[in-house]
Design a protein that fits this description.
Strand content: 15-25%
Number of helices: 10
Number of strands: 10
Order of helices and strands: EEEHEHEHEHEHEHEHHEHH
Strand order of the largest sheet: 3-4-5-6-7-8-9-10
């Protein structure tokens, strides 16, 4: 059974569950079924993006679900090709039309795309969209401290969330510390490192055996104890439920340190350094 999921309060007052559900590559009818299964399993935070091209599937799952809309937290993201102010506003509206929703609980800038130098303009659009009730909370993805500092300095508005690549092979210690010091919640994309060799890691396997848990459960529990909000993805109802069942045990300090020790500077799963990588 899935135990009660704690909530995290953002700097603007919105609350999010301590774990969410990633929907990347969940499209069409199968995507609707997978997302609906996740809602049935107990997920209440559902993370999408304009570039995933599945906001429609997400909205359809929300409509088919017996869970009231107000009990869910629906998130999407602004693509890099629409960072200019007017395009950003139109894209937010298009995101809502695609999903058939009246508002998003959380909307994020997907990447800073620094060479285009428009992310502050995009941020101003998100600020206004929030004022107009299209979005309840606004944040970013893949923003480095220098990007965040500029947003705050030029607009006076601090993002509520920074969603970044985060897993035991790339623990983002400095970024997490910066976010925490500025009241920003760090969300983890690819929390299981896209199911790569991390899921065969001997150190984590030993800890999993000690707790009689699966390796993904140990990794997700590690995220929770770091203070990060993981967004695992799975189409399997069994794994969806398993990934939620992480709030009835704890890792020891020694176990946390052992997992922390797996991180390394070049631990990204792909060459997606926000200082240079751009997505449109």
């Amino acid at each position: 059974m899935v135990t009660s999921i704690p909530e995290i309060k953002l700097n603007d007052g919105l609350t999010l569950p301590a774990i969410g559900f990633g929907t990347y590559k969940m499209n069409g009818a199968s995507g609707v079924n997978g997302i609906l299964s996740a809602i049935d399993a107990g997920y209440r935070l559902l993370d999408s993006a304009f570039n995933y091209e599945n906001e429609g599937a997400l909205g359809e799952a929300v409509r088919r679900s017996s869970v009231p809309r107000e009990k869910l937290r629906i998130s999407s993201k602004l693509p890099g090709r629409h960072h200019s102010y007017q395009e950003a506003l139109a894209t937010i509206q298009e995101s809502l039309f695609r999903a058939g929703l009246d508002y998003y609980d959380l909307y994020l800038i997907h990447w800073p795309n620094p060479s285009k130098n428009l992310y502050v303009e995009a941020w101003r659009a998100l600020i206004d969209a929030r004022k107009w009730g299209l979005i309840r909370s606004i944040g970013v993805c893949n923003f480095l401290p220098e990007h965040l500092e500029r947003l705050i300095k030029e607009t006076g508005v601090t993002p509520s969330v920074n969603q970044v690549e985060l897993h035991p092979y790339f623990s983002q210690e400095k970024q997490r510390a910066w976010d925490r010091e500025h009241g920003i919640v760090t969300e983890s994309w690819s929390p299981l490192a896209r199911a790569n060799k991390l899921l065969q890691d001997r150190t984590i396997k030993k800890i999993a055996d000690a707790h009689q848990r699966s390796i993904p459960q140990i990794i997700l529990r590690w995220h929770i104890q770091l203070g990060a909000l993981p967004l695992p993805k799975s189409s399997s109802p069994q794994r969806q439920a398993e990934n939620l069942s992480i709030f009835d045990f704890s890792l020891t300090d020694e176990e946390m340190q052992a997992i922390n020790g797996l991180s390394h500077e070049d631990g990204r799963t792909a060459d997606q350094d926000p200082a240079k990588y751009e997505e449109f």
